[in-house]
Each structure stands twice: as structure tokens, then as C-alpha cells.
């Protein structure tokens, strides 16, 4: 009886919370590679998978279309956004230029406050990695990079970088679930923090660019191995 009473005190999730949960689960299925690039997203299948209404599923598809990871086409419906090899190369060309410029603009040696902030985020990142918390890994990874690049002092550049980080999300997030990619990411984060304590801006910038190449190569390999589903 006590257990029943306790459960009765737990409020039911609001419509906004239910909608956010459907968006979160669909986003994770895409960015962590459970749904392959080009896969057709059938509303009835998603309703069953998430135990959600058609309205919530459609709203989730609209939201992820705005984020650029779902594509909706007439007479086709919704699919996981597929980027061609040429599109991937072009997108990463821009992201690499923005990343290099932001890293070069960070004054070295970096202030202790930045080192402390990044060290704490890296501690959280390691904890999420050890726990295999995929969502937590993704969120702390992005928080680490945004904190790092914010030190360039140009919020417009940081906003552009964030836009391209979001654009490449389907290409890079799957690697955070890969043990080799995750281990490499952790090592490179640690080295970034060490380079921030020195004066070699070019080494820091090159490392930040190199940090992106594993996920880029992995995505190109994946799309070469499998054609988009029709």
C-alpha cells in the first residue's frame, strides 16, 4: 500500500516532457548510429518503438529536420539525413577552418580558470565514458569543446563553430560509442589541456583539427559500405 501511495504522488509527465523524450530518443537512435544514414523513418514504426502518439512522432521529425539530421521529401517521407562523400568533405573543410582559427586566437598560456573548467569537464567526460553513458558522453564532449573555443574571445566565431558541430552530429556522435574512437578522444582532450598551459598555438590548433579526422574518416567508410535505404 505504501508503494502504491508513493507512486501515486509521482506526477505524470507533461505533454512537453513526453514530446521532449520522443525527440531525445529519436535523436539518439540517429546520432549513435542505430538508424543508418538514408534509412526511411516510418511513423507507425516509430510510434511502436517509442510508445508515442503520431502527433509526438511527427513533431519529433519536424524538430530534427530543423536540426539538419532528418530529411523530409515529397513522395518519400522522412529519412535519416544522408550526406554524400563530397558533402562530408566540404562540410569538414569549413569546420576545420573555423576550428583552426578559433584555436589560434586563444591566448597562451591559458588562464588557470579555463584550465580548471576544462579539467572538470574532462573529469565528467571520463566518468560518463566509464559508465558507458552515451548521452552523457555526447553532452560533456560538446561542453568541453564549446568551453575551449569560447576562449578565442569571438562569440560569432564560436556560434559558427557550434552550428557546424551540430551539422556534423550524425557523422561524429557514433564514434563516442566506439571504444577506439572514445579512447582517442579522451587522450586528445588531455593533450589539449596540456598544450593550453604552454605557448605553442600552432600545435594546439593542429591537434584540434586532427581531433575531428577520426569521425570524418569513419563516416566516409560507413557511407561507402552501405547505400541509403530507399
Automatic annotation (TrEMBL):
InterPro entries: GntR_C, TF_FadR/GntR_C, Tscrpt_reg_HTH_GntR, WH-like_DNA-bd_sf, WH_DNA-bd_sf. It comes from the Bacteria. It holds the Pfam family FCD. Transmembrane segments: none annotated. This is GntR family transcriptional regulator. Keywords: DNA-binding, Transcription, Transcription regulation. Residues 16-83 form the HTH gntR-type domain.
Amino acid at each position: 500500500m505504501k508503494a502504491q501511495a508513493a507512486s501515486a504522488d509521482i506526477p505524470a509527465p507533461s505533454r512537453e516532457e513526453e514530446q521532449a523524450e520522443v525527440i531525445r530518443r529519436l535523436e539518439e537512435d540517429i546520432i549513435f548510429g542505430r538508424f543508418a544514414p538514408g534509412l526511411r523513418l516510418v511513423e507507425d514504426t516509430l510510434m511502436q518503438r517509442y510508445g508515442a502518439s503520431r502527433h509526438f512522432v511527427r513533431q519529433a521529425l519536424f524538430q530534427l529536420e530543423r536540426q539538419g539530421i532528418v530529411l523530409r521529401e515529397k513522395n518519400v517521407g522522412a529519412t535519416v539525413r544522408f550526406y554524400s562523400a563530397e558533402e562530408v568533405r566540404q562540410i569538414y573543410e569549413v569546420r576545420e577552418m573555423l576550428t583552426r582559427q578559433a584555436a589560434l586566437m586563444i591566448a597562451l598560456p591559458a588562464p588557470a580558470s579555463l584550465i580548471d573548467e576544462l579539467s572538470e569537464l574532462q573529469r565528467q567526460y571520463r566518468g560518463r565514458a566509464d559508465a558507458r553513458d552515451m548521452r552523457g558522453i555526447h553532452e560533456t564532449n560538446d561542453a568541453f569543446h564549446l568551453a575551449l573555443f569560447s576562449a578565442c574571445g569571438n562569440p560569432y566565431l564560436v556560434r559558427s563553430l557550434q552550428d557546424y558541430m551540430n551539422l556534423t552530429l550524425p557523422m561524429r556522435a557514433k564514434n563516442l560509442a566506439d571504444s577506439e574512437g572514445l579512447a582517442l578522444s579522451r587522450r586528445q582532450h588531455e593533450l589539449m589541456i596540456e598544450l593550453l598551459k604552454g605557448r605553442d598555438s600552432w600545435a594546439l590548433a593542429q591537434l584540434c583539427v586532427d581531433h575531428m579526422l577520426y569521425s570524418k574518416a569513419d563516416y566516409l567508410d560507413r557511407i561507402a559500405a552501405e547505400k541509403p535505404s530507399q
